[in-house]
Amino acid sequence: MKTKIDPQLLIAVGVLIASFSALFVYMRQAQIMNDQTEILLQQSKANAWPHIDISLNVSTQNDSVKSFQISVINKGTGPAIINNVRLSIDGVAVRNWEDFFEKAEKPDSIAASWSASSISNSVISSNEEILIFSPFNSDLRTWFFNTASKVKMEICYRSVFDDYWVAVREGFSGMEQSSARSLEECSFSEDQLFIN
Questions:
Q1: Of 4, 45, 74, 79, which residue has the fewest beta carbons closer than 10 angstroms?
Q2: What pTM was computed for the model?
Q3: What is the pLDDT of residue 81?
């Protein structure tokens, strides 16, 4: 004896299968759209990626330092928003250049005259270079050059997407290179900030 299948039951099962198929297709489309959005965000971040380099320009002749300049260059593709700067000598943070000369025990016989620019809370555009320290007289340049291996500079900066990095340079006597690493946020304590 054959059992008759109710046509309405067949229609209901067909509608249920079609609904699940539509739900699956919708979920897959949503996943693809999320993936595309993430790719676009990463491309936008790459187009606005800052990269701070702490560089040194030094020239010597005999025992004298003819020029000595510390500068900051944004080698990235987007603006670098500078949050904090920390400068230390032998691991001790200094507040400004006068404090640096005192803690580094600059002899009183060497006149302290220099040019400096502050970069704290500033924005450095792509390919922009800012001279942040240049001693005027040769005695100060030579003294700084001889002390420079004990100097460390850290610059915490972020992109327009609030991704954070810190650029670090340990030593300013010639061959050292600055490096950068990513951070969750800038965490220099207030009493360690270098304010020029």
A1: 4
A2: 0.78
A3: 95
